[in-house]
Amino acid sequence: MCVKTNTPHKKTENPTSFLLVFPHVSSFIASLPLSLFFHIFFCFVLLSSIRQPLINLTELFHVCFPFSL
């Protein structure tokens, strides 16, 4: 019976540990430069466009990073 009471206890520890880590993650995201945030967003767009190959990747790159040319 002790083992059965320990397993739900461990399941409740996971969301609380996530809630403890979440303010640190949100403050880390808030401390990031805006350009790095857009770069991370571009990486997510790139990963989603790999799943949907209808989007031209070079066209997407030229739209997001016109200054790199």
UniProtKB/TrEMBL annotation:
Domain of life: Eukaryota
Keywords, alphabetical: Membrane, Transmembrane, Transmembrane helix
Ranges annotated as spanning the membrane: 25-47
Protein name: Uncharacterized protein
